[in-house]
Design brief:
The protein is of the alpha+beta class. It has helices at about 1-35, 45-50; strands at about 40, 60-65, 75-85, 90-100, 105-110, 135, 145-150, 150-155, 160-165, 170-180, 185-190, 205-210. The chain has one domain (about 1-210): Lipocalin, CATH 2.40.128.590.
Length: about 210
């Protein structure tokens, strides 16, 4: 009897702990989805590079827009990254989030016909017509997000993720890392160390929110 009672208490404590952890993850997911959307650019970083005499990062603009895309999930965003000078689109995809037991999982989705969704950053209602064949999950490229103090960090498993890096070129095993605060989104996407490519001095494109929403 005593052993059964102890086991019951332990099970109740474990269940309460799991429920508390899930509640915290749900709260973190809510904050992440509030912080992430907006319009960004990395002009502060580019100016600092030039002032310091470093080779400047490419001048980029980034827009993150929440969209209603039930085929993908409940917490879905459209991301488009553009070369500021040429207006060439560098990255265009959907991302979705869900709260797991010990992390928030981001899944990235490629668009089978990217041109169809051009302009969706200003007309996100286009995605209400999304069909299963319009997207493909980027297998092996999920990111795990965790809250650390007043910021979120995310990373993938570069031994599993193969993608074409921004700007085109060959498909590479890719090491992706992200940092997010209420005002800055920093993204590093580069060939993994296993490829033998030397890491740049600062592999992050550091985007500051410019007041867009």
């Amino acid at each position: 009897m005593l052993g059964g009672a102890i086991a019951a208490v332990a099970a109740a404590v474990l269940a309460a702990g799991c429920a508390g952890e899930q509640k915290r993850m749900d709260a973190d997911l809510l904050r992440l989805t509030v912080w992430l959307p907006g319009s960004y650019d990395n002009e502060v970083q580019v100016a600092a590079d030039r002032q310091a005499g470093r080779a400047p990062h490419e001048s980029l603009t980034l827009t993150v827009v929440p969209v209603d895309a039930e085929e993908v999930g409940s917490h879905v965003f459209y991301i488009v990254e553009t070369d500021t000078d040429s207006r060439r689109i560098m990255v265009q995809r959907l991302i979705s989030f869900n709260a797991a037991k010990d992390a928030i999982i981001e899944t990235m989705w490629s668009l089978t016909d990217p041109t169809r969704w051009r302009g969706a950053d200003t007309t996100p209602e286009l995605f209400t017509g999304l069909q299963p064949d319009d997207v493909r999950p980027m297998a092996g490229c999920d990111l795990k997000w965790r809250k650390e103090g007043e910021r979120f960090t995310a990373s993938n498993d570069p031994s599993l993720c193969r993608m074409r890096l921004p700007g085109g070129g060959a498909v590479e095993f890719t090491d992706m890392r992200i940092e997010l605060t209420a005002e800055e989104l920093a993204i590093s996407t580069r060939a993994s160390a296993a490829s033998g490519a030397p890491p740049p001095e600062d592999s992050y494109d550091r985007f500051h929110r410019n007041g867009g929403s």
